[in-house]
Amino acid sequence: MQLGRKIRDLRLRHGLTVHQLATASGLSKGFISQLENGITSPSLASLAGLAEVLDTSVAYLVTPDSEAMHVVRKDERRRIQVGGNSGRVEVLTPATVRNLDVVMAELPPGLTAGDKKHYHQGEEFLVCLEGRIRVTCSGQIAELETGDSAHFDGRAPHAVENIGEHTARLLIVVTPAAFEPMMRVRGEQPPPKRARASRAGTAARPAAVTARTPGPRATGSLRGST
């Protein structure tokens, strides 16, 4: 059922649990679970409440997905600002809600030890297109060179660092789609959440993409970009 899949995808995109979505929309946890699995159908009032919390429209929830091709031109890519890091991150996928996000990232040369790692829902896959990078994930370390790739569970704390002498370029795929809002940093409190009115409370909002403050050397770590 498309409706249930859309609600689940949007919930994950916003970093909400079933319980949080139920509380914010004034619906029961069991009802949300049944709705996502296509077991029940919501009333128009329930749909309106869910749409408000999920920052979308009722029309989007009930309209069948389009099979049209979406093209993103090079000069139309969305760019993500990564705090004090001079790295460049561009989103290659369209702004429409999809099941994955693909981004192109450039990391400047220089090594930062990095004692904090970020995490997010879903899976992550990356390819080193140019340069040398180090991927740290759940205590495991892998050094990748041009053409090498890595895949891991995005829920595990991880970080990517440029260990070469030149700018490194990498392609990153994250699924489900939620690259920007689903970044978190272990050991840090997320930035204040913007309140959003709902019938039963305030919906939790995702933390912003977070970057590590650079030290004396040039920062070559991608914080909040994978």
End-to-end CA span: 30 Å
N-to-C SSE string, H for helix and E for strand: HHHHHEEEEEEEEEEEE
Question: What's the helix count?
Answer: 5
The main β sheet shows up as: 6 strands, antiparallel
Q: Give helix % range.
A: 10-25%
- As residue ranges, the low-confidence spans are 111-115, 181-221
Q: Quick one: how many beta strands? A: 12
Mean pLDDT: 75
Proportion of strand residues: 25-35%
CATH topological fold name of the largest domain: Jelly Rolls
- Report the CATH C-level class of the largest domain: Mainly Beta
CATH superfamily caption of the largest domain: Jelly Rolls
- Tell me the number of structural domains: 2
CATH architecture of the largest domain: Sandwich
Radius of gyration: 19 Å
Secondary structure class reads alpha+beta
The geometry reads as elongated
What order do the strands of the largest sheet run in, or round the barrel if closed?
A: 1-2-3-10-5-8
Structure description:
The chain has 226 residues and is an alpha+beta fold. The protein has 2 domains: 2-62, 434 Repressor (Amino-terminal Domain) (Orthogonal Bundle), CATH 1.10.260.40; 74-222, Jelly Rolls (Sandwich). Helix content is 19%, strand content 26%. It has 5 helices and 12 strands. It has helices at 2-13, 18-25, 29-36, 44-53, 58-62, and strands at 78-80, 88-91, 101-107, 118-119, 123-130, 132-137, 140-145, 149-153, 158-162, 168-175, 184-185, 221-222. Strands 1-2-3-10-5-8 form a 6-stranded antiparallel beta sheet, with no helix packed on it. A 4-stranded antiparallel beta sheet has the order 7-6-9-12, with no helix packed on it. A two-stranded antiparallel sheet has the order 4-11. A hairpin with a 7-residue loop joins strand 1 (78-80) and strand 2 (88-91). Helix 2 (18-25) crosses helix 3. It is elongated, with a radius of gyration of 19 Å. The model is unreliable at 111-115 and 181-221 (pLDDT under 50).
